[in-house]
């Protein structure tokens, strides 16, 4: 997975005030990048997952994710927000960074669980969180995440 996430999948200064704004942005990017042909389908899958329980984690990070037939290939998108995003997070704090996972429905049990597990482990590492927060270089963020996905 050395180049699973590309710099073109990392976004900065994303304008979003709410979780819905953030999910709408991510769904739009999934369509624009060719990850999906169905922006509305991706958004519906994100919202359905969020309705099951928050994907807002701790320390300003969220892992919004979707499993959907409208996703053509597994992908990761990263959004660093211009300001705080109101999100029902586990520590009650606003979200500043979303690391989003998109997986075709058929890969839900394998690719998805492995990716979700690896990203959750990344977010437990303060050094990882600090690295992501400290840079606005898309290549560097992609590299940091790709290195951890290889582990």
What is the count of helical runs?
A: 5
Q: How many DSSP E strands?
A: 5
Which structural class is indicated by helix and strand composition?
alpha/beta
Helix fraction bin: 40-55%
Overall body shape: globular
Q: β content, as a range? A: 15-25%
Q: And the CATH topology? A: Mannitol-specific EII, Chain A
The CATH superfamily name is: Mannitol-specific EII, Chain A
Please describe what this structure looks like.
With 151 residues, the protein is an alpha/beta fold. The chain has a single domain (7-150), classed as Mannitol-specific EII, Chain A (3-Layer(aba) Sandwich), CATH 3.40.930.10. The protein has five helices and five strands. Strands 1, 2, 3, 4 and 5 form a five-stranded mixed sheet that branches. α1 (19-32) runs antiparallel to α2. The radius of gyration is 14 Å and the shape is globular.
């Amino acid at each position: 997975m050395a180049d699973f996430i590309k710099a073109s999948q990392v976004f900065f200064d994303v304008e979003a005030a709410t979780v819905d704004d953030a999910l709408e942005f991510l769904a739009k990017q999934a369509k624009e990048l060719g990850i999906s042909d169905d922006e509305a389908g991706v958004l519906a899958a994100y919202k359905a997952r969020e309705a099951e329980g928050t994907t807002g984690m701790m320390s300003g990070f969220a892992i919004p994710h979707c499993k959907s037939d409208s996703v053509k290939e597994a992908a990761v998108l990263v959004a660093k927000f211009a300001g705080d995003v109101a999100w029902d997070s586990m520590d009650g704090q606003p979200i500043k960074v979303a690391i989003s996972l998109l997986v075709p429905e058929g890969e839900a049990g394998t690719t998805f669980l492995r990716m979700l597990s690896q990203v959750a482990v990344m977010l437990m590492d303060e050094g990882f969180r600090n690295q992501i927060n400290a840079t606005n270089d898309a290549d560097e963020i992609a590299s940091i995440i790709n290195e951890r996905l290889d582990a």
